[in-house]
Design brief:
Layout (H helix, E strand, L loop, with lengths): L22 H12 L26 E2 L25 H4 L4 E4 L6 E4 L8 H14 L1 E4 L7 H11 L10 E2 L8 E5 L27 E10 L9 E5 H7 L2 H8 L2 E5 L1 H9 L10 E5 L1 E3 L6 E3 L6 E4 L4 H17 L4 E4 L6 E5 L3 E5 L8 E9 L12 H9 L17
Parallel strand pairs: 3-4
Antiparallel strand pairs: 1-5, 2-3, 4-15, 6-17, 7-15, 7-17, 8-14, 8-16, 9-10, 9-13, 11-12
Length: about 400
């Protein structure tokens, strides 16, 4: 069309090449023109304002000056034993379920944790025993009272000796995670490997089923993710001779470093620190699978062997725990999300880099059985490979290979 034939109210839109847009392309261009532009600044997310009254003021952290007697062994019966192996009760109300990877981590949609039947709770325990950690989005109905009630179904709730508890009285069995806008970044204080831990493994009955609900946190992309590492998977990475060697050893788990940190901060110790000996490999009462029972945060030595040997094994297990990607899962939190994990078979680690954002969460943990090793236990990987007709992993590290990814 000649330019002189276009009326005064018309205009021609051209591609960069100079070619005129067709009618369809013109429509798309006009729609884009009307669309509000996306505000984006790389590496930065909007900080939520908390100038208004905090509806969770009663769950802010406090450090009451209390002192409790040492823990004594209490009976524990794992409810996961009664769960349906196909989890049909739990999944009856689910709208979607997806595994993050073959080794660890599952996300379920459509299930309201505040309204589970006992049969669904049993299935939940069994699923967590199998998958290590299970995630539930947007659990607005699960307030702290419902969270404690759900935890208490599985066993006696654990009271932490040093960390923050809510300001509201009567919630001393709730652990508070709270980082405000002006908090110092902790990355310089801990090595990344050391941050991996399983909660309070120095107790005589370390926790099993543990729930963490994020009340407020950075928006998507703002940091503050949590990572979990499968101890089933860590055990299965070892050669048969190494598995057999470690199965005969015990490790020392110490509360003293945690206690020293509380003293240095001027905070009370609600229970005296302890050092407890546990087997380095344990057997799970629900699945019958063997797992490492080791973590960089609390294990200080291995009993009955020279220190140089102990230190070498600890460094090796630290590396497996913290650097083996296929036994890891990483979760990006949103408000009111809940993670439910089995502390007996998982290590986990916080991640930093969310300075400027508030991160507020509450955790409830259940005292489990005293760790035991059963030589009749099985390998998770070998059992699942047999069930799914998959080949077992060749652990011969001298064979020829070519990294190709």
């Amino acid at each position: 069309m000649a330019p002189g034939l276009i009326g005064p109210t018309q205009s021609v839109v051209l591609y960069d090449s100079g070619e005129e847009l067709g009618d369809k392309d013109m429509s798309l261009w006009q729609t884009a023109e009307k669309k509000k532009p996306i505000a984006y600044e790389p590496g930065r997310t909007a900080v939520e304002s908390y100038d208004k009254i905090d509806e969770h003021e009663d769950l802010r952290p406090s450090f009451p000056n209390l002192h409790w007697d040492p823990l004594v062994e209490v009976p524990y019966h794992d409810k996961g034993i009664h769960g349906d192996p196909q989890f049909r009760n739990l999944l009856a109300s689910a709208t979607d379920v997806v595994d993050y990877n073959p080794k660890i981590g599952t996300e379920i949609h459509g299930v309201n944790l505040a309204k589970l039947t006992d049969a669904q709770k049993n299935d939940l325990a069994r699923l967590i025993s199998v998958r290590g950690v299970v995630f539930f989005r947007d659990q607005t109905d699960l307030d702290i009272d419902a969270q404690r009630q759900l935890g208490a179904y599985f066993g006696k709730l654990h009271k932490h000796a040093t960390t923050a508890v809510p300001r509201r009285a009567g919630l001393e069995d709730v652990h508070v995670v709270f980082t405000d806008f002006n908090a110092k970044d902790q990355r310089a204080v801990f090595s990344p490997t050391f941050l991996w831990h399983s909660d309070v493994t120095y107790e005589i009955q370390p926790p099993s089923y543990t729930s963490l609900k994020v009340i407020n946190g950075p928006p998507r992309g703002g940091g503050g993710d949590t990572l979990w590492s499968s101890q089933y998977g860590a055990y299965d990475l070892l050669s048969k001779p190494m598995q057999q060697y470690l199965e005969g050893l015990n490790a020392l788990h110490s509360a003293h470093m945690q206690a020293d940190g509380s003293r240095a901060a001027g905070r009370p110790l609600r229970r005296d620190p302890v050092v407890t000996e546990h087997p380095l490999v344990r057997t799970h009462p629900v699945t019958g699978w063997k797992s490492l029972f080791f973590n960089p945060g609390f294990v200080t030595g291995i009993v009955g062997i020279p220190k140089a040997e102990s230190d070498t094994i600890i460094r090796y297990l630290n590396e497996i725990t913290s650097t083996t990607q296929e036994i890891h899962v990483r979760y990006q939190w949103q408000k009111n999300d809940v993670a439910f994990w089995d502390n007996r078979i998982c290590n986990h680690s916080a991640s930093y880099g969310f300075t400027g954002h508030r991160r507020h969460a509450v955790r409830v943990a259940v005292q489990a059985e005293r760790p035991v090793f059963d030589p009749a236990g099985k390998s998770q990987e070998e059992e699942l490979n047999a069930r799914l007709a998959l080949p077992n992993v060749d652990k011969d590290g001298t064979r020829q290979s070519n990294y190709n990814d």
